[in-house]
Specification:
The chain has about 350 residues and is α/β, with parallel strands linked by helices. The protein has 15 helices and 5 strands. The two termini are about 45 Å apart.
């Protein structure tokens, strides 16, 4: 995910989807797909195009007053409904009351879309337009709405003011209320081809001022991200090398946690889940997705892998708020070594 500006064009696969989405009718569009496919960038590009003073089939012009107002996060006809943590990260202003509570340390920024923010979005849709021919509400990630927040938006989704358009974007479609899904046109996010994604990754890294990477390095970043370009860019910016990625499975089998040590706990857990996935694929005769088959240790018995997968899924519930990160990671390391030491299933 990136902060979109007039100077930064959309990735080519997102540009194609933008042109297709602009041709659709209806007041509510739901962009759905797994993380890392650019839902936020595409949703913001749609909002820019709908509000642009000189739009074209390609999208917003990027130079009019409306486009500039979005760039500086001040457009009066755009309401961006995000979790507070994400609003702060992407530079979208919070309302004065919320900002004061955060500044005064009364509470921490929420990782969910609060019902108070959803109510403000509804009020926004009922007010008079300021400069554009329509008003736009952008909701991302839509699965971060709790039950009360989602229900607050239902009436607006069902019977919006005639000059209101909504774009919702989600990375977990199944977690949305059926009543939300049924009131939107659903657009399934498209995956880029490998060569297209690699070229985009190399361009992004070159734009960051990094030394020119190779196609082989880009391939490793994409493999680590399961083919998701935004996630691959995070791996690239984090300095992941092919040597480190390929060494991880055997290192973990030996109980060596040093390669994972500098990473946040959530990323460590993500790597363990990917390794578990690939070992389960290997055990069932399928091709691995995240690691080359040659670097994987022998797959343990299926029962051990199934239990490990269940344990890792359970760990995701508390990974953001561990009681003791050091002890938690020590337990993960020991458990991983224990699982991978199990005898493999007999052919």
């Amino acid at each position: 995910m990136s902060e979109v500006s007039a100077a930064q064009p959309l990735a080519p696969w997102l540009q194609r989807q933008l042109q297709a989405a602009l041709g659709q009718r209806g007041h509510a569009l739901l962009l759905a797909g797994p993380s890392g496919l650019g839902q936020y960038d595409l949703a913001l590009a749609l909002a820019r195009a709908w509000l642009c003073e000189q739009p074209s089939e390609q999208g917003a012009c990027g130079v009019c007053g409306s486009c500039h107002a979005i760039d500086v996060r001040t457009h009066a006809d755009l309401c961006v409904l995000l979790p507070e943590t994400l609003s702060l990260a992407l530079g979208w202003p919070l309302d004065e009351a919320t900002q004061k509570k955060l500044d005064d340390k009364e509470r921490k920024p929420s990782k969910l879309i609060r019902v108070e923010a959803a109510r403000q979005a509804v009020t926004f849709t009922q007010s008079t337009r300021a400069r554009s021919s329509t008003k736009v509400v952008l909701v991302y990630p839509a699965e971060r709405m709790n039950m009360e927040s989602a229900n607050t938006l239902l009436k607006t989704l069902e019977e919006p003011n005639g000059v209101v358009r909504l774009v919702l974007a989600t990375e977990a479609l199944a977690q949305l209320l059926p009543t939300i899904r049924s009131r939107c046109q659903i657009h399934a996010m498209a995956w880029p081809g490998d060569s297209e994604a690699q070229a985009w990754l190399l361009d992004q890294m070159a734009g960051d001022g990094a030394p020119r990477a190779t196609a082989a390095q880009a391939e490793v970043w994409l493999q680590a991200a399961g083919g998701r370009p935004d996630d691959a860019l995070e791996w690239a910016r984090g300095g992941l090398t092919a040597q480190a990625w390929h060494a991880l499975p055997q290192a973990l089998a030996r109980g060596d946690w040093s390669l994972l040590g500098p990473w946040p706990a959530a990323r460590q857990l993500d790597v363990l889940q990917k390794l578990c996935h690939d070992l389960m694929a290997q055990a069932s005769g399928a091709a691995p997705r995240y690691f080359p088959a040659a670097v994987l240790p022998p797959a343990p018995r299926w029962s051990a892998l199934a239990q490990w997968s269940k344990d890792l899924l359970e760990a995701t519930r508390s990974v953001e708020h561990p009681f003791n990160p050091g002890l938690m990671q020590e337990a993960w390391a020991g458990h991983t070594k224990q699982v991978l030491a199990r005898l493999p299933a007999r052919p």
